[in-house]
UniProtKB/TrEMBL annotation:
One of its GO terms (biological process) is cytochrome complex assembly. Residues 8-213 form the ABC transporter domain. This is Heme exporter protein A. Keywords: ATP-binding, Cell membrane, Cytochrome c-type biogenesis, Membrane, Nucleotide-binding, Translocase, Transport. The keyword Transcription does not apply. PANTHER family: ABC TRANSPORTER I FAMILY MEMBER 1. The lineage of its organism: Bacteria, Pseudomonadati, Pseudomonadota, Betaproteobacteria, Burkholderiales. The keyword Cell membrane applies. InterPro entries: AAA+_ATPase (IPR003593), ABC_transporter-like_ATP-bd (IPR003439), ABC_transporter-like_CS (IPR017871), ABC_transptr_haem_export_CcmA (IPR005895), P-loop_NTPase (IPR027417). One of its GO terms (molecular function) is ATP hydrolysis activity.
Length: 216
């Protein structure tokens, strides 16, 4: 990852799901080395906001900008800059743990060999389960498979993680915190949701409470 400054900007975002308007006039800017913790009660719109930030959802109003350019204009160029890990881990039951790592990484534009996937799985404590079909894994193990992508050599600058700590045991939480802190120390950026505070270190560690909608 280079040392150039990058920015993710939410500009006047408004979001509706179904008939319900979740938020409006939402603004923030995140730069290299910074992390933003999205907080709020169940149903306040944290996952919906993450989906807007990664381009999976479209805002009712406003826009998401990457280095000043609306992400709709950047398309795949923007997608190559990020990893999005949704709340419901997108794990394919019929694929083995290592095949899931290869597929999810390749789909996000980062080539990943079997050996690289195996190394990533070892680093999240799943070396012994690499050949098992995902359907045979526990919830916490499935979560680890989803997060193994973060242990691959090269991470894109922006991580968008929805409840990354859910279902993980304490050692796995600590491993993930180390990975995220390493990413931030190298100039990466992170937007995440969690209902439990975690020991993350960033040049600037902001909180955005969707219940309050206080601008950061
Ligand atoms: N596909 C959908 N269609 C209609 N409404 C939806 C859809 N997905 C989510 N919603 C609604 O949007 C609101 C916000 O949901 P969202 O998942 O963004 O909340 P959240 O803050 O991430 O919640 P949690 O803390 O429980 O994960 C909820 O009221 C939910 O019912």
């Amino acid at each position: 990852m280079g040392v150039q400054t990058m920015s993710l900007q939410a500009h006047q975002l408004a979001c509706a799901r179904g008939e319900r308007q979740l938020f409006s006039d939402l603004n923030f800017e995140l730069q290299s080395g910074e992390a933003l913790w999205l907080k709020g009660r169940n149903g306040s719109g944290k996952s919906s906001l993450l989906r807007l930030l990664c381009g999976l959802g479209r805002p009712l109003l406003g826009e998401v900008r990457w280095n000043g350019t609306p992400i709709q204009r950047l398309r795949e160029d923007y997608h190559r800059q990020l990893i999005y890990c949704g709340h419901a881990s997108a794990i394919k039951d019929d694929l083995s743990a290592w095949e899931n790592v290869v597929v999810s990484s390749t789909l996000s534009g980062v080539a990943c060999s079997r050996d690289q996937a195996l190394v990533a799985l070892v680093s999240v404590g799943l070396g012994g389960s690499a050949e098992l079909p995902a359907r045979a894994l526990s919830q916490g193990q499935r979560r680890r498979v989803a997060l193994a992508r973060l242990a691959l050599d090269r991470l894109p600058p922006l991580l968008l993680l929805d409840e990354p700590f859910v279902a993980l045991d304490q050692p796995a939480v600590q491993t993930l915190c180390r990975t995220l802190n390493w990413h931030l120390a190298g100039g990466g950026m992170l937007v995440y949701t969690t209902h439990q505070a975690q020991a993350l270190e960033a040049r600037r560690l902001g909180q955005f409470d969707l219940d309050q909608l206080a601008p950061w």
